[in-house]
Backbone:
């Protein structure tokens, strides 16, 4: 029994030595901790202004006549061509009015024919001195009155025909239907929009800038416009034309600044949020510190990174972050140039 116990102890000792050696071998073969050294990049002095994307050409399509809407051929998001039919308004009342005007024109023309013949007959009689000058003048006046009434009826009939044509609403240009504000059966009223459309080929960003910052803007420099909801290729745009609108808001003391955008954008839409980095002059630029996004730990409301000490030991440090820039994120507080940050927070935590 004693010999068996000694042999068992020897076996366990050999097993522990083997496991220890295996663990040591695994640790010694583990890859070194990946790190990055924080650097401060030079940044151009800019003022960040926020606003929205707008269409250069946008129209609220409203009828010029009243009536019940009998046809709507488009919906929001549809692409339409120039002169394409958009809506139709009931023309029954307009057709009746046009028919009435045509009948009145016929009556006026008949009266004009009678007045003309009477005037010609009185003219011949007056030339032979069979009638007085007063009778002649009365015949001439009746003829001119009938002629004027005929012209008025013709003009009114023409106006009725125009109004009939206004019951058909066509697209003024090629574009996209942004919003439909009516339904079939609704009563259309003059000046009340039925739909809104815009031309997607030309867009701009309009941002609000305090009046105190206008004098610092560099009007000759290009402006970076960030559209966070666009696709990756169009998320960061460059504007080469800056226009300050001449009127300022009396309540907010803000001025609207329009920034042209490249043509034929595919993922940018009117109403999207935009942020413009406006270059300024006479202001000292401050360097930026960024860190890879994958190095940041997010635990509830805590944002932190592992920073290596002089002894190479990872230490958790809280940071305050700014805007994301590609694979990096700006660090507003918590890091300085020269800090060594672990790229893999999990591996750094296991080394603590």
Residues:
């Amino acid at each position: 029994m004693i010999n068996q116990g000694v042999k068992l102890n020897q076996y366990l000792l050999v097993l522990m030595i083997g496991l220890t050696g295996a663990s040591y071998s695994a640790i010694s073969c583990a890859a070194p901790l990946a790190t990055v050294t924080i650097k401060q990049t030079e940044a151009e002095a800019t003022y960040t202004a926020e606003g929205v994307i707008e269409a250069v050409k946008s129209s609220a399509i409203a009828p010029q006549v009243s009536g019940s809407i009998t046809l709507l051929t488009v919906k929001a998001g549809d692409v339409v061509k120039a002169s394409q039919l958009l809506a139709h308004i009931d023309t029954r009342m307009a057709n009746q009015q046009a028919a009435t005007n045509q009948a009145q024109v016929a009556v006026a023309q008949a009266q004009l024919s009678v007045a003309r013949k009477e005037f010609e007959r009185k003219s011949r009689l007056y030339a032979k001195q069979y009638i007085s000058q007063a009778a002649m003048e009365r015949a001439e006046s009746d003829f001119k009155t009938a002629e004027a009434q005929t012209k008025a009826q013709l003009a009114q009939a023409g106006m009725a025909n125009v109004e009939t044509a206004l019951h058909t609403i066509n697209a003024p240009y090629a574009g996209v239907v942004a919003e439909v504000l009516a339904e079939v059966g609704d009563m259309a009223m003059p000046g009340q929009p039925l739909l809104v459309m815009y031309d997607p080929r030309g867009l701009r960003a309009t941002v609000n800038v305090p009046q105190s910052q206008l004098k610092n803007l560099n009007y000759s420099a290009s402006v970076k416009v960030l559209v966070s909801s666009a696709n990756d290729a169009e998320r960061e745009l460059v504007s080469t034309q800056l226009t300050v609108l001449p009127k300022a808001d009396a309540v907010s003391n803000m001025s609207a600044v329009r920034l042209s955008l490249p043509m034929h954008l595919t993922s940018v839409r009117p109403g999207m949020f935009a942020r413009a980095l406006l270059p300024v002059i006479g202001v000292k630029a401050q360097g930026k510190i960024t860190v890879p996004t994958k190095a940041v730990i997010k635990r509830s409301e805590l944002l932190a990174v592992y920073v290596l000490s002089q002894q190479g030991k990872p230490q958790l440090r809280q940071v305050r972050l700014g805007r994301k820039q590609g694979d990096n994120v700006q660090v507003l507080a918590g890091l300085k140039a020269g800090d060594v940050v672990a790229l893999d927070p999990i591996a750094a935590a296991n080394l603590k």
About this structure: Residues 268 and 351 are 46 Å apart (CA to CA).
